Amino acid sequence: VQAKFQLQMLATVTQCRQVKAWARSPEKVRQLSTELAAEGWNIEVTESADKACRSAGLILTTTPARSPIVEEAWLRGRPVLVVAIGADAVGKQELHTDVLKEADLIVVDSISQCKERGELQHVATSDSQVKLKCSAAVELGAWLSKASTSTRPPSGVVVFDSTGVAVQDVRIAELVLNQLSSNDAVASL
Question: In 58-95, which positions are buried (b, 16+ CB within 10 angstroms) versus exposed (e)?
């Protein structure tokens, strides 16, 4: 469900419709592929997370995993954006801590929340290089403010760790409601 929603939202900002997908449940990923094919997506189902990640420019994780899935070695040698949204509770983890260690930039929705229940929660048991890298994580709002004046975007691995922030959820709901309200078919909401 979450992967389908994320791809549908991604469709509003990019024309790319090529996706490599992997899931622990082969039936679920095949169902996702079938459903999204009707919306114009070309989804290649892979037999491993490794194969789904190796050549991707964007990696979107939406799993309830409690052990890392994405390995740093799969991301080497190219710019890649890793959007990790599945680790949103204590104990969840989608990215090996080496992904954070080697990232050129780590952006989070909330530093305190990500340290408590996002990918950053696993830093406490990591080596000092991972801790140092994660101490430089920047919140999305601050990064967007700086990025608008920056002359050079990051050129390697960028990680966005999102645990869900209520104020963002409220704003998104408001935007969706406004969009729906402008549609005559649902104006009675």
Answer: ebbbbbebeebbbebebbeeeebbbbbbbbbeeebbbb
